[in-house]
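Appendix B. Chain record.
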Amino acid sequence: MKNLETYLLKKYCRKYGLDYQEVDSSLTYWENHQHLRSLVKMLCGSLDTFEIARMEDLQEEYVLNHPLEYFMSYRDPRERKAKVQTDSTPAEFSLRQMAAVSHGFSLKAFLLEQ
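Structure tokens predicted for this chain:
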């Protein structure tokens, strides 16, 4: 068994309160996992309560790692619609005017400096 597999099995034992000694290094990962799962079933009767707890853990992890998606899932879908302007005439755009207004840039002054 590889170190990662041993780590995952020990993590599984920690999660369900099992003893690490239940992990047998002579067995494969899946055989060990099946054995640990059978112990959990025997101790609890069913995995339903643990599966619910696992789903809650996954949800908390998702909320921490993906806050924007979580926020968007609770927003009203009607709020996402873009507001369309009723004015059909497009505004005129002038690159020269935009450069002069926003940055104080003048092409003539730039060329004279060179």
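Further analysis of this model is presented in Appendix C.
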